[in-house]
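chain below, 408 aa
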Amino acid sequence: MSRLLNLPVMDAGGDQIGKVRDIVVQNRLKGRPPRVKGLVIELFARRRVFLPMERVHSVDAQQVIISGVVNTRRFERRERERLVVSDLFDKRVVRVGTTTQATIFDVAIISERNRGWALEEVALREGGSRPFGKGHVTIVDWDEVPDFFENSDQETDLLVARLAEMNPADVARELHDMGPERRAAVIDALDDDVVAEALEELPEADQVSVISRLDAERAADILEEMDPDDAADLIAELEPSMAETLLERMEPDEAQDVRTLLTYDAATAGGLMSPEPIILATDATVADALALIRNPDVTPAMAAIAFICRSPLDTPTGRYLGGVHYQRLLREPPSTLAAQVIDNTIAPLQPDYNIAQVSRYFATYDLVCAPVVDAQGRLVGAVTVDDVLDHILPVDWRQAQLREVNDV
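prediction:
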């Protein structure tokens, strides 16, 4: 970590946006090393902001390269998080199996298989109690030093760590069964993306309750992590003044997607769609298409079809040309133009199609993802089959499912 400190942070274009000042770590289930959540970056305006580790593209001795846009909201540490430099460096500990006091001198982090990072080793300076004395440095595994989170609520820590590794529907069930105070404490400690995915699985009443109890900045961050159509459905249930406040706190691009969806009736293709499907240019190859489909942030249903359009490629796009099934892409040479394997039998949905028309469409064409094209022939989004099911199932299906699971 000491080698990362003060390294310049560069965006994909090669411009420096700031410097690394700290690393945020969080405890996990017993036996697993603390997870690295992200970096604390100091921008040139001396504002410190948080950058998730998923956005770190590469790290070397000279720089840290990131992808995407940096959220410039001021960093605020959440409960059950630790800062490596501020909290761990110079902390006095007793190594497991010994009685000798040592000081944490440095820590090492390692990249894991799932694109995450974890704290792996700790450098301890043993002895050296004399003024200006250096002492002997020993490198040990992370679990050879006392719990870094010894002053926190261990029960809540373990619960948060367990929830972070569960399916969103299971997280939603756990949150649904908690009392208001317990749920508030757990949500405060969970990552924004975990809360966002769980909210999408909760009944509307629970969604509104959770968001209403959060401060506006945190609520806006969580809404940004939700699928735009789910965020729009939730915002539509809030008081107009609160809804507008949250939209103003969201990043402009994210807020615009939600505002666009709010202009459609919720039970139409326009209200059901996501404005962020996989979109390809006319000169994109099969390899280009598969690279986008492999993005782990894209849901399996949304990754089923890539849509080819003329420029611009952000929705609403230029003229929509057609869709390409991922199964067909897998059977073609990587250098083949994706436009050569368009499925011309897919008739696009129109934004004003009602839920009955949309559900019959999916049943007729046996699809899990379908394009939505406006009167000008532009792709404005895509509807997935799970969005359709949400609207054709009984209104209380989520509550009923939670009751059934609890009964079992």
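The mean pLDDT is 87. The chain has three domains: 8-144, 166-263, 279-391.
thats it, cya
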